[in-house]
Specification:
single chain; 285 residues; mainly alpha; 15 helices; 2 strands
Length: 285
């Protein structure tokens, strides 16, 4: 036994960092190899279309999209289908309202960061009303009293600050995004008080459970939209990309149509961000 112990101690420990570095290098190589070729400069129409689509790594993104479709068909859609079968509409609507109420602190943070003080006041009132009269948020009583819901995230905040969106990307499992919104996802996760509390009290299972339920709720909310889109689209990937970017642009403009005065706050930045071209959400993150 002593000899075996010495032999085990003599072996070099597994270099985890080295393994991750190799994986990262392979991913970068695959990423670069998958980059779509830009059209020739002497074809201005093709160049303009290429820039408007803003999907320079389309082959790589399509591969990730295919993976996501496989995960959806094998896991997410069946689970959501069962959820839709056993839970009637009022129950699913209550769950959706509850999850939205939990996001109020994140929405409030981004309202303030965008200078949207009126919307920040609405967020506070919605949280107070729905957390009490609305029974922990399961009932959207605030909407019935005139405080309409809205969503804000740090990706939108960065857009208001005129941070460029970067190229369109398809994230594994998470779906359509871009570098700006990917950063926003991370920041929103880090500033969420519920995540702080769960992490600091060894209750990480709360974060995992909330993430899983939110994913099912999002898939439920998008069920009919995705079914119709997949059935009617010649190119489902391109249709998802277009719908995501249009919806994201609408969220950044706070629902205002192009040409209308932007919402109060960092008005100049909102206008600039909305006019820099197609932006980007299909998810209810």
């Amino acid at each position: 036994m002593d000899g075996l112990s010495k032999g085990l101690k003599a072996k070099k420990p597994i270099q985890i960092k080295s393994i991750f570095k190799r994986i990262a290098v392979l991913m970068v190589v695959a990423f670069m190899a998958a980059c779509a070729s830009a059209p020739p400069a002497d074809d201005p129409e093709s160049v303009a279309e290429f820039k408007q689509i803003n999907d320079p790594i389309e082959p790589f993104n399509r591969a990730i999209f295919g993976f996501n479709q496989g995960v959806d068909k094998a896991v997410i859609k069946p689970i959501t289908g069962v959820y839709r079968t056993i839970a009637p509409d009022p129950v699913r609507r209550g769950v959706h309202n509850f999850l939205g109420n939990l996001r109020a602190p994140v929405i409030l943070f981004n309202d303030i960061m965008q200078g949207e003080m009126e919307r920040a006041g609405t967020t506070i009132m919605r949280f107070l009303i729905n957390s009490t009269v609305g029974i922990l948020g399961f009932r959207d009583q605030a909407a019935e009293w005139g405080y309409a819901p809205h969503r804000e995230d740090f990706g939108q905040t960065l857009a208001v600050w005129s941070v460029p969106e970067g190229p369109y990307v398809m994230l594994p499992v998470l779906g359509p995004s871009n570098p700006r919104d990917a950063v926003g996802i991370v920041v929103d996760f880090l500033i969420d008080p519920l995540n702080w509390w769960a992490s600091n009290t060894d209750r990480e299972y709360i974060t995992y459970t909330r993430t899983a339920v939110s994913g099912i709720d999002t898939r439920d909310q998008l069920w009919d939209v995705l079914e119709d889109l997949e059935r009617s689209s010649i190119d489902y990937y391109a249709a998802i990309r277009s719908l995501y970017r249009q919806r994201r642009a609408d969220e950044i403009r706070n629902g205002a149509t192009p040409g209308e005065p932007p919402a109060p706050g960092f008005t100049g930045s909102v206008k600039t961000a909305a006019q820099t071209g197609p932006l980007t959400d299909l998810s209810a993150r």
